[in-house]
Design the sequence.
């Protein structure tokens, strides 16, 4: 056994085990574990790490190994690693690449990470339309041998590099050898602009069901391709961001167990404090109704019930609309349809909760002396308030994402707790208004 | 112009416009619009529809067209269409397929829709290990011409159909023609079991960064392949389900604007009513402290503030843990690490909110007579309660997903509002306990 094998056996760590403890290990342990793997295992592990972890591992390795591993990455992933590295390290990383790759990577670094240009690979196969199928296949065979290219789709360009057709490798491969590329190519091309947001790119790919889409500039010239495996990451990442925003925090942008504790607490504390400041208005609203509460403490008993119902129905509505917007199912111009639908839903849901609430108070009130002699009026107050609060919560929850998007913000920032806070304050006002109307002269 | 073209021009609908109004149109309008498209446009539109809409369109078409379009689908999508169709229609749909496809589709119907077997395509390329590279490429060229197969990866099987190797098409295509397939294939194969849940399949694919993974049975025999374009749909679908559960409702399982109103309200009312019943415990808890509230109405003013802070911090924690579990970043055995982390986060976040709350009450109390002469004690009550409530909320929110998963439920069902409800009730108890401890003899 070689020294390396001995060490691997002594440590008893397989590639799988190493991957599992990766986030807990310090840089030295990672390097040691990484080196104990066979070359094939090490390559699989390295390629499976996310960009941040790849960058950390590269930094921890000595210069010669750093070059070896950086060159394993396709240019789009190498660009991501350079982008995430500290600015002062970026140039030294770029210098590790061979000349043609460095050019490709530098071109990719000009794009934001979350737009089509930042996702694309510059390594695709391009052909002229007047080549024969047989010539094209010979050319592809050489290209496959010499360069790591994606050959599932072949893009046909005119003399100005403008994209005029596309043919899948399977179609080309199965076509009669003496036809020209022009004969077998399709001219109806699904493509995306280089500055398109990655969430929109994901929606285009999900709808087109293609394995790759070409990225073009304003003049229709092809700049690269986005492959569907990168889209899986985008979809997961965007969903995670939305879920965390809906959960009432800034997106963490890092796996939960890997993010530094202080950084995580900061991202959570900001939103919690903002919501807390908003929620302070409830204390102001309650103070405004202090006399009513003093005269009829029974009113205070239902405050949590009423306002949480508004909050829950608002969360539902905003979550639904935010997700439908992210999937492209609902657009800004659908706002009126959505609002009408949610108004009806709000009244229906308010009716359900109001009825349950009415029965609860009426039955308890009849059976005990808990709610005083006017318990039926109290029950009616609960019924009316719930209809009002739930309808208002549902409407506000569905409207807010439209308002935020119209103003250019991410609708997911209309996160459920934000709606809940808005609805809590208005819910108190609705509740005490209904109570004043129904109970003046009896309980109040 | 043909009749069809005239109609298309008269209606002025492009394929894109038709797609946009699709969900609003009734079956007759859909058929009419669909027929007005050119064959290429119609094919693109049909293939881009989701399974439910494809099934509805097929049902609305006359029998001969139905057969034509059903046969356009690859077998895994045809199986999905059959699965979603009413039981009595399923056999008649199956009869429209040609014999070999019907066999493939029937085999796929045996799997649940959300496991690897239900996602896979039976059309992959298999080779024997002792073929030469040149023979293999000739064989593939014929296969590409004759059958719609995915040829990006080629799977190498032994005589018992067991998977022994894999080679990418690009590698095979670039290899010296006289080597054997065995020489160029890889033996370290990433595969998934046929009954693996689709969310786990998505995690395997995201980690391996492959364009397709083979699906095998317990004996290691290959049954089909799952391609990454299907995984994009899975990831979107699973994220939508989780987001809707976190938003406090059942997963809708249909696009927002397409689901029938009554069905949507039912899915939302169930959870809202359950949460409402839970939230009724707040009225019970409040009634228990009725005397305290009557003696010190000032306590009631802060009830919404206190309980919403617990709810918001609980939502944060549960959302974080639910998402990290879905992505495979956190497993059941990590519970103790997560809980320790969340305990520390809860104390820190509670400290932040408690300090803000203390300052608010102390400053307002000094400046106005709103909170009485003992306003500093009230401020201290708010401080202590917030630390307790936020810590408890954070702990409960992070623990509940573990408990639910341990019991075999979906952790996303520990949706944020459910945690909020749990925390509301406990928050009241914490608040009034702290108040009794600090304020007895002065305010109380």
Sequence:
């Amino acid at each position: 056994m070689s020294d390396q094998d001995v060490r691997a056996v002594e440590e008893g760590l397989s590639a799988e085990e190493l991957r599992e403890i990766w986030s807990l290990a310090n840089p030295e342990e990672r390097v040691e574990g990484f080196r104990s793997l066979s070359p094939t295992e090490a390559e699989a592990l390295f390629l499976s790490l996310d960009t941040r972890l790849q960058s950390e591992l590269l930094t921890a390795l000595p210069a010669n190994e750093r070059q070896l591993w950086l060159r394993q990455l396709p240019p789009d992933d190498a660009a991501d690693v350079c982008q995430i590295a500290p600015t002062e390290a970026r140039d030294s990383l770029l210098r590790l690449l061979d000349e043609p790759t460095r050019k490709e990577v530098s071109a990719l670094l000009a794009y934001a990470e979350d737009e089509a240009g930042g996702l694309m690979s510059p390594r695709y196969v391009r052909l002229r339309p007047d080549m024969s199928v047989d010539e094209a296949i010979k050319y592809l065979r050489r290209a496959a041998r010499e360069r790591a290219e994606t050959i599932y789709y072949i893009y046909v360009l005119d003399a100005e590099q403008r994209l005029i057709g596309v043919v899948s490798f399977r179609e080309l491969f199965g076509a009669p050898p003496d036809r020209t590329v022009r004969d077998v190519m399709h001219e109806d091309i699904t493509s995306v602009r280089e500055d398109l947001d990655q969430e929109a790119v994901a929606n285009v790919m999900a709808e087109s069901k293609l394995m790759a889409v070409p990225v073009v500039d304003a003049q229709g010239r092809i700049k690269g391709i986005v492959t569907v495996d990168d889209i899986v990451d985008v979809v997961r990442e965007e969903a995670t961001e939305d879920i965390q925003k809906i959960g009432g925090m800034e997106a963490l942008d890092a796996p939960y167990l890997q993010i530094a504790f202080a950084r995580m607490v900061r991202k959570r504390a900001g939103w919690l404090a903002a919501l807390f400041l908003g929620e302070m208005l409830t204390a102001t609203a309650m103070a405004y109704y202090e006399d009513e509460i003093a005269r009829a403490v029974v009113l205070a008993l239902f405050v949590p019930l009423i306002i949480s119902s508004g909050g829950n129905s608002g969360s539902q509505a905003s979550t639904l609309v935010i997700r439908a917007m992210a999937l492209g199912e609902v657009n800004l111009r659908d706002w009126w349809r959505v609002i009408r639908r949610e108004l009806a839903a709000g009244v229906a849901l308010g009716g359900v909760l109001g009825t349950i609430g009415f029965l609860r108070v009426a039955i308890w009130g009849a059976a005990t002396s808990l709610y005083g002699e006017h318990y039926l009026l109290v029950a009616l107050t609960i019924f009316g308030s719930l209809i009002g609060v739930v309808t208002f919560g549902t409407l506000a929850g569905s409207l807010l994402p439209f308002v935020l998007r119209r103003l250019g913000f991410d609708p997911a920032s209309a996160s459920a707790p934000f709606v809940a806070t808005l609805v809590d304050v208005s819910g108190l006002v609705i509740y005490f208004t209904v109570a004043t109307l129904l109970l003046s002269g009896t309980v109040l």
